[in-house]
Amino acid sequence: MRVAIVTESFLPHINGVTNTVRHTADRLLQTGHEVLIIAPGPGPDSHGGARVVRVRSISLPGYRSFSVGLPDAAVERALAEFRPDVVHLASPIMLGAVGLRVARKLGIPTVAIYQTDIGAFARQYGVRALPVIEKWVGRIHRRSSRTLAPSSTSRAQLAALGVPNLHVWRRGVSLDLFGPRHRSADLHFRFAHEPGQVVIGYVGRLAAEKQVRRLVELADLPGTRLVIIGDGPLRAWLEQHLLDATFTGMLGGAELATAFASLDLFVHPGESETFCQTVQEAQASGVPVVAPAAGGPIDLVEHGRTGLLYDPADRSSLRRAVETLVGDLELRRTLARRARQQIAGRTWASVVDELVNVHYAAVVTPERRELVA
What was the pLDDT predicted at 230? Predict the structure, then answer.
């Protein structure tokens, strides 16, 4: 199958959209499919065996690390030349809308992957245009051949916008990378500073939409140390308010896997996650999770069995949940073990194969395949 991926973000930028596209493209190439990637530039012009077409872009004010693709004739030229069986729209907003328009013009079916809650993002940054944004998001997904949401919550959001042909497609996790075998006693001791301290970790972007300011609620928990893994525009603010915390900056690969596994518990404060991949990575690493009872984590964490969910509307709920795990080593071990068992088969290979065999197959007709053959 020939698959064109039109994505709002790609390498060298690292975020959830980029990582999902990267894993999807890698598996497609591994299983013999042809792949074209269209992404905002600048960046590498190839990935594995896939060509990457770079289009004009601008950086968001106040969020310089994120490029927004602009309407560009290169999109139509690339799709017309590649003649894909299906156009995969990764988190479509701006460039994805262009890709959708061109695909419809060329008669190519589309599968749109909903991944970013743009409305919640806008609220965190004080953008007063929520109705307009929701109308735009709904329009894109209503005009796509099929839309895939990462969680039951995001599926309900899209259903409320009148999006048809809506299905849940979750994310994989790199079980070959993340695992409790990577736990380092030396790194744990460096995180803890002294014996007996429980290491609480956050992994992700240090940005307003992740609601990382709430980590301050955990700053003075007795017998704990806070480790912040990641970078972003709120790092300076957090460093000023979390004087005893350890900030590692952005980590990746084996270094990230070791850091993850060397935590005693993982906390995610953001309540607007459509999925929350770092919850899965913590679970794969054998680390118990505390996450909000909102958004994607509701599907990933079974409260009291595979982690703890806190009420984001209750200002003391996050701290209480963390205190519960800090004081109960056996509960931490039990939750971590059950969570790891739960995700044992959730590899990227399995979820991308599902994408091809179920979702692409549903929109790519035999007539379409004969047309592009």
Answer: 96
Total of domains in the chain: 2
Residues 186 and 204 in one domain: yes
Amino acid at residue number 131:
P
Q: Which of 41-45, 116-120, 307-311 has the lowest mean pLDDT?
A: 116-120
Q: Token pair for residue 263?
A: 């935590």
The radius of gyration of the chain's CA atoms, rounded to the nearest angstrom, is: 21
Give the CATH number, domain containing residue 147: 3.40.50.2000
For the beta carbon of residue 151, count every other beta carbon within 10 angstroms.
Answer: 23
Report in angstroms the alpha-carbon separations of 320 from 68, 222, 287, 311.
Answer: 39, 13, 18, 10
Q: Which domain holds residue 234?
A: 180-342
Same structural domain, 94 and 186: no
Token pair in block for residue 294: 């909102």
Q: Do residue 334 and residue 351 come from a single domain?
A: no
What are the tens digits of pLDDT across the range 260-289? 999 999 999 999 899 999 999 999 999 999
Predicted confidence (pLDDT) per residue in 349-373, tens digit = 999 999 999 999 999 987 655 555 4
Say whether both 215 and 329 belong to one domain.
yes
Same domain, 152 and 223: no
Per-residue pLDDT tens digits for 146-203: 999 999 999 999 999 999 999 999 999 999 999 999 999 999 999 999 999 999 999 9
Rounded Cα distance between 274 and 298, Å, is 10
Q: Are residues 56 and 161 in the same domain?
A: yes
Whether residues 199 and 145 fall in one domain: no
Who has greater pLDDT, 31 or 69?
31
The reported pTM is 0.90
